Amino acid sequence: MTDTERLLRHRSFVELGARQRARALLDNGTFRELLGPFDRLMSPWLPRQGIVPQADDGVIIAKGKLAGRACVVAAIECGFQGGSMGEVGGAKIAGALELAVEDNRNGIPTCAVLLLETGGVRLQEANLGLAAIAEIQAGIVELRGHQPVIGVIAGSVGCFGGMSIAAGLCSHLLVTREARLGLNGPQVIEQEAGIEEYNAGDRPFIWSFSGGEQRHACGLADAYVADDVERIREQLLQLLGQPSANRARQHAWYLQRLAQLGAEAPQLDAAAVRALYQGDAQ
C-alpha cells in the first residue's frame, strides 16, 4: 500500500471509543462482547458517593479472532471516570485473563490484548481497586507463560498508577505519539513536588518525558506507530510473532541505570533520560 493510499484510508484509533477500538482490532465478524452493558454489571460503590455508575463499569471485554487465532481483548473506556480501575471493571479484566489461561490449558491457544487508557486505581473504591489491579497483574504473568499478552496505549489519557505496572508486565507494549506512560501522573507529581519541579500544564514538557516516542526510545515500549487503526493492527500482529520483551526480568539492569542518579544530581532533560536508558542491556 502506498503512502497516498494509507492517507486516504487513515482512521484515527485515538478518536474511537473503547468498544470501537476492540472491534477494529479483531477480525471482521468475530467480535463477541462478554458482560456487556445489558448485563448491568456496575459498581455498587459509586452511587453511594453521588456518582452515576456506568452499566459496563467502563471496561469492555470481547472475544474473537486476531489473524485467525483466538484472542481476548480488554478495552478501558477513558471517558468514564478517567478510565480508573474499580472493583467491577478490574474483576472483568482479571476474569478475562483467567478465561484465556483456561482456554490454553484446554488446548485452545488464546492470546490477550489490553487497551490501556487509565489513570490507575479509582480513588472512590481505593483498596478494592488496588486488589483488582493486583489480580490483573497476576493474570498477565500467568497468561504470558502460554501466549502473548500485548498492551496498547494510544491516548488520550495514557496509562498511569498500578496499571502502568501491569503494562510493564505485558509480553509487548505498543504506543503511539499521543500515548503517555508513567507510574505517577503529571498532576500528582506537581501536587507533591511543586510546579517548579514538574509543570503539569506544560504539554511539550510532559510528552517529552512520558510520551510514547520517548518511552519507545528508552526501551520501555516495543513498538511505536502512528495513530491509525490499520497501522496499529499491523504492528500488533507483528508483535504476536516475536519473543517476549520480558522487561520484568531485567530489573537489575534498570536498577543499575537508576543507581547512576545521585540524590544531588541535577534535573534531567528528555535527551539525558534517553541516554541513560539506551545503554546496552545485560
Automatic annotation (TrEMBL):
Keywords carried by this UniProt record: Lyase, Transferase
EC number(s) per entry: 4.1.1.88
Pfam family, one: Carboxyl_trans
GO MF annotations in UniProt: lyase activity
InterPro entries per record: AcCoA_carboxyl_beta, ClpP/crotonase-like_dom_sf, COA_CT_N, Malonate_beta
Domain CoA carboxyltransferase N-terminal span(s) in chain numbering: 1-254
Name of the protein this chain belongs to: Biotin-independent malonate decarboxylase subunit beta
Naturally occurring in which organism (per UniProt): Pseudomonas farsensis
